[in-house]
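All the exercises in this workshop are built on plain-text protein records. A record pairs a protein's sequence with a compact description of its fold. The structure tokens are whole numbers drawn from a learned vocabulary of backbone shapes. Once this layout is familiar, the rest of the handout is easier to follow. An example says more than a description, so a record of this kind follows.
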Amino acid sequence: MEEAFAAEIAKSLLGKLGSFAAQEFCLAWGLEADIARLEKKLKAIAAVLSDAEQKQSKNDKIRIWLNDLREATDCSHVLHEETGMNRSFDSFSGLIGRDEDKERIISLLEAPFKSPNNFHQVRSIVFADSIVGPICKKDFEKCLLEFKHLRSLELMDGSEFEAFPERIGALKHLRYLNFERNPKIKRLPKSIFKLQNLQALLTGEGFEELPKDVRYMISLRFLFLATQQKRLPEDGIGCLKFLQTLFIVGCENLENLCEDMQGLKSLLKLAIGGCDNLISLPKSIKCLTTLEEFCIGNCAKLNLMTIEEKNEEKIRPLSLSLRIVIFNNLPSTIALPEQFLQGPAESLQTFIIRDCPNIREMPECIGNLKKLQNLEISDCPRLSKRCQRETGEDWPKIKHIPKIEVDNDDSGEETSD
């Protein structure tokens, strides 16, 4: 029980931080050391948790407290202070091992809003459940200008935030803004585009439109975009020359991306998924010369060949930096974009093709990808048949690749030159 309950708390309290790490935000705030300290503290209190769980069968008060603790850790907002997150965790862990009620826990979470002296210490706020959320929302809007050093703001589902206060533009040090899991927020106030230190923005499924003014967020490094737009506007995202990671996910109405993607001069990772009405990709996607990872999937109408030029004589292979390419669940794609794959001949290391049943053959250029180490083909009946070891028609094109995994190939062997 000790490990299970400690893991449950770790998942709840550190899950948010884990998302930072996954999205490469840790470096922006120097959170690695804080995470390590939190993990150490969780292990230190595990013995107390275990003792409480062993006693809960004989003590209803302890059992109720443990249930409340689980709920509180799952839907609390976390406060980061000057010395990192350990101060707030010290206060929180002070409740461990004593018979405290839920009101005591919630009062602790609300503490920074009770004393004006605490405002200057707050670095991060996560508004979560319907119990803490409404109280904190009211106090947050009232005292917004006092959060002069706030760096991270996250609005979860159930936080009862339906719009950002206009004064949010006063949070000049804000670096991370996340309402990915709050579908109630539909638009951004104009003042938000004054946040020139903002490095990460994550929008939710109810978000209606990302306006052109996003180009004024000159420090933006990470953008997770869910929008109801049919087309991304020109002179918007394409102007974010320092953007490094772009996720375009769950945009059911989106038919076309912006054509000026060549302006993303620092983009390293691009992921597009769950855009069922996306018809085509802009040809400018081949101009992303810094791109290292490209993943696109679950786009039922997308034909990858739309990025190819009709007159191939005018196309020169671009010097791309692609290391990883993943195509997943693209039923409308009947061929792989050869011009696109010509560029990373000296960089591509992993190529994964999944659930693309209508791709008919491997392009000739695959033989020029001398750095390619891993090729995976699954749920692509036509392509898999042609890429069978030794017997497939396309086997000569791919036999130089050290590791190949293809459906219905049970040999399990690795190939080499």
Notes: Residues 1-7, 9-31, 69-102, 410-417 have pLDDT under 50 and may be disordered. The longest strand covers residues 245-249.
